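ok so heres the complex, two chains, lmk if somethin looks off
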Amino acid sequence: MTPISLEAMAASIPDGAMLAMPPDNSLPSVALAKALIRRGARGLRLVGVPISGFATDILIGAGCVSEVNTSAVTLGEAGFAPRFTEALKAGRITIRDATCPAMHTMLQAAEKGVPFMPLRGLIGSDILANRPDWRVVESPFPAPDGSVEKITLLPALHPDVAVFHAAMADSAGNVWVGRRRECATIAHASRRCLVTVERVVEGNFLEDERMTPGAINATYIEAVAVAERGAQPAALLDEYGFDTECVLAYARAAKTAEGFAEWCAEHVFGGQRAAAE
Amino acid sequence: MSAAAGYRSEELLAVCIARLIRAVPTRHIAVGAASPIPAAACWLCVKQGDPLRLSLLHKRSGNPFTDGSRELFDLTGQGRVDLFFLGGGEIDGQANLNLIGTGDWPGTGVRFPGSFGSAFMYYMAGRTILFREEHSPRVLVQRVAHISAPGTSEPGVYRRGHAQALVTGRCIFHFHPERARFSLASIHAGETLESIRAMTGFDFDVPDGVGETPPPSAAELALLQGPVCDEMLETYPEFCRRVWGRSRAA
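and the predicted structre for the whole thing:
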């Protein structure tokens, strides 16, 4: 397995692609989000699995995004996501609101190769009222007491590209995400899967009983790029923590378009030379 | 809260929630994103010796889920979560929650972050404690602008649980799903029935004998400031710094 460069990986994602990304607590590739900003990506449709965080907000701020399909966009303890909020208000992006288990369920249907899966809850929520792609039916299986249950069917969701940051890749191109198995779900459900990693190690995770449960088979992985500290300011498993100070500083800067542009100049374009090496 | 009271508002609210947890037999609690005060309440119960299983979604080391972030929802769907916590940008008198925003859909006035797992967890958890520190007419409204998750459901919709109570910075309400109304349970120090009414946008019932919320005990405060804060530093560093002035060793 030969890694490609981060910039080549970003170049392989076409404008308009539907990109599935995990949020800040589950291995987002902030490095690839920054590379997409540098390449000037446009019209991306982001899928939050199941919510969206820092990487989504910077992509929106840089004008890379046309639509977000997610259950929330948040910076966690740092509060509301400022560029998302501003872009939505200005009408530059569309949001398709969901609820967390609905995002998982739509991706699980895609994993299984079936057209839809049912999910309880939802009925009586305005989320459902605003999702014409979701259908309420009477369950064909009556409850033990004979009563009929109304239940919602959610269509399979097949993102064009799954994007996340793994701790490592091995010689065979398998990647290791520890307990963050939602990365496996989006890898399985998406047509392509692009993974940034901290490092590449010798060997094969699938031949090591202790590594296998946290591994994703190379079958699903199209390409790997090395990006050290590529999840930051989000955390990476037990390797490094969430950088609260950095995200608080971002939240303050990104309150205005000018502040965001300055933040980008320093943190996205300022690091370009180092990232490309 | 004032220094004269001898405790912080966050500490009183954590103790209020801990008492509501203990009021009903509880084996397993799940705590979602951005919920430091409910998390503190759960840890307080644990440190007081309650045999609770806590599943903290955002705990980095020792996170309880081994099957990805969908596992929380799967096990709640099975009925394995007795208690969950939810808040809302708006909460109305029928316990409907709005995490979407104000103005037209999808929040053309003020946009909130989004609904998270509420449109599933509110139905499927054994019960839910609602928590919102800000108690004002803009939060506690007659009718929410949009329903992320409804307080009650029509027949034919599977629903395991409802709101148990709503804890705010001014009082505690209990919720009665059979009549879809809140009743006042206790009033925090410094508030009156009149001040609560003035700051609440919805109608609620007032039973006889509503009293003041008991303050935290010295033992509860010691646990919150010591062992509870120790457990929270990794997941809620900003909260621990703001409330207890403590930071995690680098």
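quick notes: Residues 22 and 245 of chain A are 21 Å apart (CA to CA). thats all i got rn
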